[in-house]
Amino acid sequence: MLNGRVVNADFPFKEVPNDPALPFCKDVASHKLTVVGKALNTFPSYNSNRRVRVSEAGAKNLATSGTRQEEAQREGTTQAVDVKGRILEYAWHLKKDGRADATIKTYVASLNRLLRQGTDLFNPESVKEIVATYKGSDHTKRMMVEAYKGFAELNGITWEPPQYRGKAKIPFIPLEREIDDLIASSGKKTAALLQLLKETGARLGEALELKWTDIDAERRIVRIEPEKGSDPRVLKLSEKALSMLNCLPKVDAKIFGGKAVELKYHKSLCRTRRKAAMKLQNPRLLQIHFHTLRHWKGTMEYHKTKDPWHVKKLLGHKSLQSTEVYINIEQAIFEQAPEEFHVKIAQTPEEIKALLEVGFEYVCQKDGLMFLRKRK
C-alpha cells in the first residue's frame, strides 16, 4: 500500500488503482505479461541462484545433472535429425524394392513408435528392451521387429530379432441391420463409402482410390484395383449403391479423394458411431470399423454359397488360407440356424437355363419336372 494505492510487487514502477470498479485482472491485462505469465517466463533467470531446502552437495549435484541434461538434449536433437533422415532413406529403399505403400507406411509408423518410446535405433539392445516392455499386443511387437529388421540390415547393424507371434483374433461380425443403421446415420459421402464396402468387401484403401471411370453404371459393376498383393476384381453393385454414388459431387477424378484423405473418413466414422450408438442405445456399433464390412461380406457370401473359392475370388485373396477364417465364423454364427432356400420347378430347357444362370442348383427330377434351389 503506497499513498492509498496498491503497488504490484512484480512491477515496482507500475501502480495498480485500488478501485472496485476497475478489477485487478483488467489492469494487469494492459501489461505485456501478466503476473503469472511473467513468473512462468522469468522463473529460471531470477531463481537460478536460489536453493530451497537443498544442501550444498545437493545443489552441486543438481547443477551437474542440469548440465548433463542440456548436453543430452543437444546430442539427442542431432541424433533425432539423423534418425529421421535414416528412416526416410529406409522408406525410399522399400519403395525401390517394390514394397506396397501400405507396408511402407506401417513400417515407418512402427519405427516412429519406437522413437517415441525413447529407443536408440542404432543400439539393437535398446530396441529389444523397448519392444519387450512395450504395453501392446504381440502383433504390434512383431510389426516393430519386422520394421527394425530391415532398418538394421540397411544400416549395417547386427540384429538378432526376438520372436513374437501375433495372436489370431476372430473379427467382430455385426448384424446387417446394424450396418444399415450406421450407414443411415452417416453423412452423404461416408454413407456412400460404407454402402460400397458392404456390397463389395473391398478394403478401405481400394475404395478410396476408385475413379469415376471405374464405375460402369449401365452394367452396374465396379472395377477394383487391388492393394496388399491381392487380385483385381470386377464386382456387381446394387441400384442403391449406384444412386448414392451418383449423388456425390464429381469434383475430382477419384470418387472419395484418394488415400490422402483417409484420416478424414476415420474421424467421420468415429463421430457417427458415437452418436448412433448413443441414439440407438446399441454399443455394438462402436465395434464397427471400415474393415469390419470386409469381414461381414466374406462371412455372408460363404453362408450363401458354401463355396470358399467364390469368397476367395470376391475378396481378391491370393491364398485360400486367408479365406478360411470366414468358414469358421460362418459355422459359429449359423451353426443352429436352419438353412432356407428358394425352390423352383422347371419343365423346359429354357426355364432350366434361366434358373441355372441366376444361381439355382439342381436337386432332383420327378414326373418330368426338374427341382432346383438356391439359398436365401
Q: At the fourth CATH level, what is the homologous superfamily of the largest domain? A: Intergrase catalytic core
Q: Oligomer, anyone?
A: single chain
The major sheet is characterized as: 3 strands, antiparallel
CATH class wording of the largest domain = Mainly Alpha
Helix and strand layout, with pairings?
Layout: E1 6-7, E2 15-16, H1 24-28, H2 35-47, H3 56-96, H4 101-116, H5 124-133, H6 138-154, H7 176-185, H8 188-200, H9 204-208, E3 215-216, E4 221-224, E5 233-236, H10 239-246, H11 262-280, H12 292-305, H13 308-315, H14 324-333, E6 341-346, H15 349-357, E7 361-366, E8 369-375
Antiparallel strand pairs: 1-2, 3-4, 4-5, 6-8, 7-8
Helix pairs in contact: 3-4, 4-6, 5-6, 7-8, 8-10, 8-12, 12-13, 12-14
Explain the overall architecture.
The chain is mainly alpha-helical. The protein has 4 domains: about 5-45, no CATH class; about 75-155, Orthogonal Bundle (DNA polymerase, domain 1); about 175-330, Intergrase catalytic core (hpI Integrase, Chain A); about 340-375, no CATH class. It is built from 15 helices and 8 strands. The strands form 3 sheets. Strands 3-4-5 form a 3-stranded antiparallel sheet. Helix 8 runs parallel beside helix 12 (about 290-305).
